[in-house]
TrEMBL record:
Compositional bias of kind Basic residues: 307-319
Keywords of this entry: Nucleus, Ribosome biogenesis
Biased composition (Low complexity): 223-238
GO MF assignments: snoRNA binding
Chief localisation class: nucleus
Top-level taxon of origin: Eukaryota
Name listed for the protein in its UniProt record: Nucleolar protein 56
Region called Disordered, residue ranges: 200-319
Family the entry assigns: Belongs to the NOP5/NOP56 family.
Residue intervals of the Nop domain: 57-175
InterPro entries per the UniProt record, alphabetical: Nop56/Nop58, Nop_C, Nop_dom, Nop_dom_sf
Subcellular localization(s) per the UniProt record: Nucleus, Nucleolus
Lineage, top ranks: Eukaryota, Metazoa, Ecdysozoa, Arthropoda, Hexapoda
Pfam family, one: Nop
Amino acid sequence: MDSAKAQAILDASRSSMGMDISPVDLLNIEMFASRVIALADYRKSLATYLHKKMGVVAPNLAALIGDQVGARLISHAGSLTNLAKYPASTVQILGAEKALFRALKTKTNTPKYGLLFHSTFIGRAGQTNKGRISRYLANKCSIASRIDCFADAQSSIFGEKLKQQVEDRLKFYETGTKPAKNIDVMKEALEEFTTLQTTLASESGKKKKKKKKDKSADDQDAADASLNGTLNGTLNGTEVEENGKKKKKKKNKDLDADVANESVNGGENGETKKKKKKSLAGEGEEGTPAKKSKMEVDEDVGGGSEKKKKKKKKSLSAE
């Protein structure tokens, strides 16, 4: 809020009698103030969105007549391509079709401007020069819309130069100073545009070279890492194979040693068994009763039984 308005409100509050505000009135006032603040914020956000969008879609038209008027022209025409196809006379009265047909029907004066009336240039012009400046502005708007629609690269250089031409035309209507020619202004704008494009191309080339260098460095690092990985893998594989071979050799040596020990132990056990057999045989010869075989045992049993029978017979005969 301006300081003058604040001072005026303060002075009025001091001079007026006033009255107490009820709680209901205070609540409604607060709600209304919050709604106004929210609408103001929303309008600011829409203005920023429109400025960004017009800078992308039609930068030259936005630089010439502003974001809001340019957006209204594009919306009324349907698209930027349709607006670029319109002649300057149609752009001049775009938005005043009803007044135009009514004037044609009643055979009165046709309208001098349509949506272009909201531009600041027409408001700054005098009453006698409003039609002339609107015709000149419509001509520059058609040029700007065609550049925006059919140019390969977007830039606001042409729009700024066209705006300067309109300013010079206003000065010419007021003071009579001659403005620069259109061909000279367009040549200057084209030179600036080409220099801008070359600088942008050089910067993009530098960026691409830097990206390529970074990419090549990353690829080299990745290749080195993969090579180191393969080398480490092969070295580890050879070490594992050597360790396996060493372990196999050690196992074979241990097995050979065990076999040799078993053979030695087996020989010793055989010798001990032979010695035991020999010792047992020697003891039998020396006087220890050797074990009889089964046949011998049976014969001994049979002989004993026969002797018993003879003794029984003798005893019976004696009786």
